[in-house]
């Protein structure tokens, strides 16, 4: 948001949907027209999402007047789109068919009676007028304002062709240009459909119970706290918490996970997910504009408005390139006849061909179509990329750093081993759990969970004189005997002769395996060792392998854990580098170091405690975006599921998008250079020039569309 818009955000900002944009240039022109309307303080067009945000006051009639040059249709953001006619039935395309028929008839007449015959000329002129009517209106208006865009170039070229008697060529140019515009419209519509399909995921009404009455209520009228009833086979219309029932939900629309997830009382559920088998009652927790799905749609649309670095380059280039082409064409048409006695009509014709081939259509569209397509594809697969800049940055990544806890591991410690030296395992675990019930430590909760799983009656055990020993453990009296639970260090101090050597060996063995070891004992002896570990996610090892496979040079694991535990987990997962014993600020500094060394670095975390490191990296990737607003806000890329398996797909998509953008720009410029070289021997005809321009636009668009096929 510009500084100007930030100041205005306090005043009324309203968003409208726009139908009928054909090119980025027209969108920019519409934005300028709206800015000059009375009552409007500022306006911002989002071409990718076909929207305009207006600061100030205006009406839809005024906005449509500002877009009359392109026959734009404007509606309120929340209004349902008017169903467009099928592509081949659209009014602007019917004119192309009529022109094409007239062109063919005129060509036959020309063959029959000669090119100069009045019938052939009238046919060509009619084809030019019908096919190029809207083009000429835009072109003339621009010419008067000395605004040289594609329409101006084409208008001058076609009128010039008619003036020197090349009626057939002029008509061919009109039709080829109209076809290229239609194809450009079609491709942008196709790319935008990825967002529109997201909008249709959630139902527009839901069955709500208020008091004893059940009724169908439109989503805009559903309030926080309403009870929503969701039958099997129905989609959820709102976010909420399950208050009754158990079912499996297919969350693919939000998280990209194809495997359904079981939800029961107390679980969070999202709008747009499909209830597969049970009847659920859900208490609504967010209004329709605040649901996770609405946020995704909003972020995707914002992302498509963000200019990528390559797009900014292309826009700057086109700004100087178009006037340069006009000057070059003018000099080419005038200098040889004036100073070398060459034929006027031949050199004017060559100048016109330069104007046509100079059209920067393919170049201007080369980046936005790729970005809109890639971001839409990612959103469908449960990955939110917040702008073209992050898409390109992700494509350039060499190093990815991962937070360990909750990212590579599940973040929930669990008991992995119980080694007893004196006494029965169940009895000793019951005593340990009874004592740890009073502790707040995460490792204590792992012991209590284990005791609950084993069905031990630790709640019935009476515990007295409970006391915490800071940083080392706890002690308490059970059945009149004093027990201690804590780190091996506590027992080194406590036992008269320290820990026995065979127990020490056992502790070391467990620690090498990446486990945290606690001991239960008295002042005289250790009775049992309990090993606790944070379990590695099943997907982590495979994700790291795939990342190295797609060309990531270095993967780093960052953790506050001790070196031994970190190395054990790092080896299991397969990362290339491990950094242990880190405080949050150490993580931040380490990311900065990596950036200095490798320039492009991603940080992957769960978005809450990793926010500073995520912000410091080139690309911050947060996982579990569906559950936490923080992840959606702080990250540049959010993986909606609480799982890393989408990361290799994201890198693959970004690299493909980057490659396609580079191919498009190179191809667009290459074809221009080639066509301009054909001028020297005089081989560049007008229809060949427009064919080169149209072909380039079409190839660039189809090339961008390949991004729809990138799968996991």
From TrEMBL:
<dbReference type="InterPro" id="IPR001757">
    <property type="entry name" value="P_typ_ATPase"/>
</dbReference>
<feature type="transmembrane region" description="Helical">
    <location>
        <begin position="94"/>
        <end position="110"/>
    </location>
</feature>
<dbReference type="InterPro" id="IPR059000">
    <property type="entry name" value="ATPase_P-type_domA"/>
</dbReference>
<dbReference type="Pfam" id="PF00403">
    <property type="entry name" value="HMA"/>
</dbReference>
<dbReference type="GO" id="GO:0016887">
    <property type="term" value="F:ATP hydrolysis activity"/>
</dbReference>
<dbReference type="InterPro" id="IPR018303">
    <property type="entry name" value="ATPase_P-typ_P_site"/>
</dbReference>
<keyword id="KW-0472">Membrane</keyword>
<keyword id="KW-0406">Ion transport</keyword>
<comment type="similarity">
    <text>Belongs to the cation transport ATPase (P-type) (TC 3.A.3) family. Type IB subfamily.</text>
</comment>
<keyword id="KW-0479">Metal-binding</keyword>
<protein>
    <recommendedName>
        <fullName>Cd(2+)-exporting ATPase</fullName>
        <ecNumber>7.2.2.21</ecNumber>
    </recommendedName>
</protein>
<dbReference type="Pfam" id="PF00122">
    <property type="entry name" value="E1-E2_ATPase"/>
</dbReference>
<dbReference type="InterPro" id="IPR023214">
    <property type="entry name" value="HAD_sf"/>
</dbReference>
<dbReference type="InterPro" id="IPR006121">
    <property type="entry name" value="HMA_dom"/>
</dbReference>
<dbReference type="InterPro" id="IPR036163">
    <property type="entry name" value="HMA_dom_sf"/>
</dbReference>
<keyword id="KW-1003">Cell membrane</keyword>
<dbReference type="InterPro" id="IPR023298">
    <property type="entry name" value="ATPase_P-typ_TM_dom_sf"/>
</dbReference>
<dbReference type="InterPro" id="IPR044492">
    <property type="entry name" value="P_typ_ATPase_HD_dom"/>
</dbReference>
<keyword id="KW-0067">ATP-binding</keyword>
<dbReference type="GO" id="GO:0005886">
    <property type="term" value="C:plasma membrane"/>
</dbReference>
<dbReference type="InterPro" id="IPR051014">
    <property type="entry name" value="Cation_Transport_ATPase_IB"/>
</dbReference>
<dbReference type="InterPro" id="IPR023299">
    <property type="entry name" value="ATPase_P-typ_cyto_dom_N"/>
</dbReference>
<keyword id="KW-0597">Phosphoprotein</keyword>
<feature type="transmembrane region" description="Helical">
    <location>
        <begin position="320"/>
        <end position="340"/>
    </location>
</feature>
<keyword id="KW-0813">Transport</keyword>
<dbReference type="InterPro" id="IPR017969">
    <property type="entry name" value="Heavy-metal-associated_CS"/>
</dbReference>
<feature type="domain" description="HMA">
    <location>
        <begin position="12"/>
        <end position="75"/>
    </location>
</feature>
<dbReference type="GO" id="GO:0008551">
    <property type="term" value="F:P-type cadmium transporter activity"/>
</dbReference>
<keyword id="KW-0547">Nucleotide-binding</keyword>
<feature type="transmembrane region" description="Helical">
    <location>
        <begin position="352"/>
        <end position="376"/>
    </location>
</feature>
<keyword id="KW-0378">Hydrolase</keyword>
<dbReference type="Pfam" id="PF00702">
    <property type="entry name" value="Hydrolase"/>
</dbReference>
<dbReference type="InterPro" id="IPR036412">
    <property type="entry name" value="HAD-like_sf"/>
</dbReference>
<dbReference type="InterPro" id="IPR008250">
    <property type="entry name" value="ATPase_P-typ_transduc_dom_A_sf"/>
</dbReference>
<keyword id="KW-1278">Translocase</keyword>
<feature type="transmembrane region" description="Helical">
    <location>
        <begin position="117"/>
        <end position="136"/>
    </location>
</feature>
<keyword id="KW-0104">Cadmium</keyword>
<dbReference type="GO" id="GO:0046872">
    <property type="term" value="F:metal ion binding"/>
</dbReference>
<dbReference type="GO" id="GO:0005524">
    <property type="term" value="F:ATP binding"/>
</dbReference>
<feature type="transmembrane region" description="Helical">
    <location>
        <begin position="665"/>
        <end position="684"/>
    </location>
</feature>
<dbReference type="InterPro" id="IPR027256">
    <property type="entry name" value="P-typ_ATPase_IB"/>
</dbReference>
<keyword id="KW-1133">Transmembrane helix</keyword>
């Amino acid at each position: 948001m510009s500084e100007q818009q930030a100041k205005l955000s306090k005043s009324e900002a309203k968003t409208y949907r726009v139908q009928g944009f054909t090119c980025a240039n027209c969108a920019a022109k519409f934005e300028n027209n709206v800015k000059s309307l009375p009552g409007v303080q500022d306006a911002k067009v989002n071409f990718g999402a076909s929207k305009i945000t207006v600061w100030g006051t205006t009406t839809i009639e005024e906005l449509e007047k500002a877009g009359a040059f392109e026959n734009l249709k404007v509606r309120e953001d929340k209004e349902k789109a008017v169903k467009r006619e099928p592509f081949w039935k659209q009014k602007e395309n019917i004119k192309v068919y009529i022109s094409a028929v007239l062109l063919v008839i005129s060509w036959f007449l020309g063959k029959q009676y000669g090119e100069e015959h009045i019938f052939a000329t009238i046919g060509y002129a009619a084809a030019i007028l019908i096919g190029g009517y809207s083009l000429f209106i835009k072109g003339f208006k621009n010419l008067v304002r000395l605004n040289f865009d594609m329409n101006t170039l084409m208008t001058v070229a076609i009128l010039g062709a008619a003036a020197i008697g090349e009626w057939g060529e002029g008509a061919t140019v009109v039709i080829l240009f109209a076809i290229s515009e239609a194809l450009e419209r079609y491709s942008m519509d196709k790319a935008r459909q990825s967002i529109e399909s997201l909008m249709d995921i959630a139902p527009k009404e839901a069955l709500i119970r208020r008091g004893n009455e059940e009724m169908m209520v439109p989503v805009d009228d559903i309030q926080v706290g309403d009870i929503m009833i969701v039958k099997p086979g129905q989609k959820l219309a709102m976010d909420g918490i399950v208050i009754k029932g158990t079912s499996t939900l297919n969350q693919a629309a939000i998280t990209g996970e194809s495997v359904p997830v079981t939800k029961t009382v107390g679980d969070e559920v999202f709008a747009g997910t499909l209830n597969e088998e049970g009847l659920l009652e859900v208490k609504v927790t967010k209004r329709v504009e605040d649901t996770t799905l609405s946020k995704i749609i909003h972020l995707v649309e914002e992302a498509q408005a963000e200019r990528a670095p390559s797009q900014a380059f292309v826009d700057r280039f086109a700004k100087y390139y178009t006037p340069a082409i006009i000057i070059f064409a003018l000099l080419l048409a005038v200098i040889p006849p004036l100073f070398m006695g060459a034929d006027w009509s031949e050199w004017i014709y060559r100048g016109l061909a330069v104007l046509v081939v100079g059209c920067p259509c393919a170049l201007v569209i080369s980046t936005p179509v790729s970005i809109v397509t890639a971001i839409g594809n990612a959103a469908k697969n449960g990955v939110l990329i917040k702008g073209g800049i992050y898409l390109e940055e992700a494509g350039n990544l060499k190093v990815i750093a991962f937070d360990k806890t909750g990212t590579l591991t599940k973040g929930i410690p669990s008991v992995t081993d119980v080694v007893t030296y004196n006494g029965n395992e169940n009895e000793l675990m019951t005593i340990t759990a009874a004592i740890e019930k009073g502790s707040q430590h995460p490792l204590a909760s792992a012991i209590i969970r284990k005791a609950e799983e084993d069905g031990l009656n630790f709640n019935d055990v009476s515990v007295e004189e409970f006391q915490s020993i800071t940083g080392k453990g706890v002690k308490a009296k059970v059945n009149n005997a004093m027990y201690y639970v804590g780190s091996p260090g506590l027992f080194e101090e406590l036992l008269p002769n320290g820990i026995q050597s065979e127990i020490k060996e056992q502790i070391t063995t467990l620690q090498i395996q990446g486990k945290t070891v606690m001991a239960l004992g008295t002042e005289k002896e250790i009775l049992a060792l309990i090993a606790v570990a944070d379990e590695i996610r099943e997907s982590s090892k495979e994700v790291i392998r795939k990342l190295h496979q797609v060309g990531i040079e270095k993967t780093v694991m960052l953790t506050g854990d001790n070196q031994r535990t970190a190395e054990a987990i790092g080896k299991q997962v397969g990362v290339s580098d491990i950094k242990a014993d880190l405080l949050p600020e150490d993580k931040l500094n380490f990311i900065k170091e990596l950036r200095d060394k490798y320039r492009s670095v991603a940080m992957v975390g769960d978005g809450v405690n990793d926010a500073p490191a995520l912000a410091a990296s080139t690309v911050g990737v947060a996982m579990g975006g569906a559950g936490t607003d923080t992840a959606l806000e702080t990250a540049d890329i959010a993986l909606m599921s609480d799982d890393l398996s989408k990361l290799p797909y994201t890198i693959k998509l970004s690299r493909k998008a980057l490659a396609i953008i580079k191919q498009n720009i190179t191809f667009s410029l290459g074809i221009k250079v080639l066509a301009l070289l054909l001028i020297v021997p005089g081989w560049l005809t007008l229809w060949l020039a427009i064919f080169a321009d149209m072909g380039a636009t079409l190839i660039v668009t189809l090339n961008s569309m390949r991004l729809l096929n990138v799968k996991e």
